[in-house]
Amino acid sequence: MRAGWDVAAGQRRRVSLGGISTRNKGVFALGPHHAVTRWIEALLVCPACHGDVARSADFYRCASCAAAYPIRHGVPDFRLWPDEYVSVADELAKIDRLFAPPAPTFRQLLTRYYDLSPESPRKLNVRYVAAIENSATRDEALLRKLRNAFPDVGRTRFLDLGCGTAALALAASKEFAEVVAVDAALRWLLVARQRLNEAGAPAVGVALICANAEALPFRLATFDAVMADSVLEHVRDSTRMQSETMRVLRGGGAFLFTTNNRFSILPEPHVRILGFGLIPRRWMERMALALRKTPYKARLHSRRELRRLFRDTGRVELPVYEPGELGERNERARRIWEMMRHIPLLRWMMGPIVPQYFISGRKS
Question: What pLDDT sits at residue 216?
Answer without folding.
Answer: 98
